[in-house]
Amino acid sequence: MQLGTGLFTGQRRPDDDRSMTEIYDELVELGRAADDAGLDSAWVSEHHFADDGYLSATLPTLGALATATDAIEIGSCVLLAPLYDSIRVAEDAATVSLLADGRLTTGLSIGYREREFDGFGVPKAERVDRTVEAVEVLRGAWSDGPLGFDPAFHPADATYDVTPKPDEAPPIVLGGGAKPAVRRAARLGDGWVAPSSLSLSGLKKRADDIRAVREDEGLDGDFTIYVLQHGFVGDSNDEAWAAMKDGYLYIQRKYAEWFGGEPIDELPADRVEELKEQAIFGTPEDVLEGLEPYRDAVGDDVHVILRTYHPGIGQDRMIECVERLGDEVVPAL
């Protein structure tokens, strides 16, 4: 089992009086701390037109993390592929991969927020086709020689040689929990990212489906299953929950607003209890116990991304959590 952290979202809660510069400095410091602690990966997320400044520029931020770290895998979880010119993504991602000495993983997803598609002038109905084409563009752009085909959504000459070339093509992983998204990842990607909302039984079912699809279609090569889950390390179960609670519930409230389309002042008590039950937090021993069912569901090669970045709870507290993951959890895995 591998263990990463994130998702660095750069959100500024209404009760946070820091500047955005300070919040972005915090992201870099947390990435550096995760690298120093010996974690396996650090990830950024993406959304647009958010009133709390949710991180919108994944690849520039990953470029900063590339130069602040030495060994850790860095990745986008996820880049909203339909919103971009795929040639430009290929150029920028190749640049980050070179800066990171090949440590970049490019996570893509189709997106879901109407506001984002409207803001970029992209028909939401095209999101799957645009994402599929993006994967083809990235693979063509990162291979030796010219692109090799004419993209439909962002026309480019097939004879153009896209540069720079990465030393090795970054892995492409695809997100999504629905059956079509999971099978798309199995067929097109080098990995799949499971959303935190999936139950363990749902996770196992999809992991089994991925392996069946790849076997049936004769797809070889490495394939990594990443699992997202929120969590935190503290001196006790109660102390860890108290530390993460405000930031965790803030994130979940914002997601609920985006899915539902209406402002939410406070999550219902039963939803808070459900979210608390889903999260993995407590002492290092508690966290280890919470991680083991994911190994059972997916296998020894599962890569858990524990979301320990909870906006506004304090940089020092998050760094302490990351250090304890490295010192007391990773060795036991």
Tag the structure with descriptive keywords.
alpha/beta, TIM Barrel, eight-stranded parallel β-barrel
Order of helices and strands: EHEHEEHEHHEHEHEHHEHEH
Please, how many domains?
1
Strand portion: 5-15%
Largest beta-sheet characterization: 8 strands, parallel, barrel
CATH architecture: Alpha-Beta Barrel
Q: Report the helical percentage.
A: 40-55%
Structural class: alpha/beta
Radius of gyration: 19 Å
CATH class category label: Alpha Beta
H/I helix tally: 11
Strand order of the largest sheet: 1-2-3-5-6-7-8-10
CATH superfamily: Luciferase-like domain
Distance between the termini: 6 Å
Q: What's the total number of strands? A: 10
Shape summary: globular
Uncertain residue ranges: none
CATH topology: TIM Barrel
What's the rounded overall pLDDT mean? 97
Description:
47% of the residues lie in helices and 15% in strands. It is of the alpha/beta class and 333 residues long. It has an eight-stranded parallel beta barrel, surrounded by seven helices. α3 links the parallel β4 and β5. α1 runs parallel beside α11 (315-329), α3 (86-99) packs across α5 and α7 packs parallel to α10 (284-298).
Write a compact overview of the structure shown:
By secondary structure, the chain is of the alpha/beta class. The chain starts with a strand and ends with a helix.
Please specify the SSE layout and strand pairing.
Elements: E1 2-8, H1 20-37, E2 41-44, H2 58-68, E3 73-76, E4 79-80, H3 86-99, E5 104-109, H4 114-120, H5 127-142, E6 172-175, H6 179-188, E7 191-194, H7 200-216, E8 224-233, H8 237-260, H9 269-278, E9 280-282, H10 284-298, E10 303-307, H11 315-329
Parallel strand pairs: 1-2, 1-10, 2-3, 3-5, 4-5, 5-6, 6-7, 7-8, 8-9, 8-10
Helix pairs in contact: 1-2, 1-11, 2-3, 3-5, 6-7, 7-10, 10-11
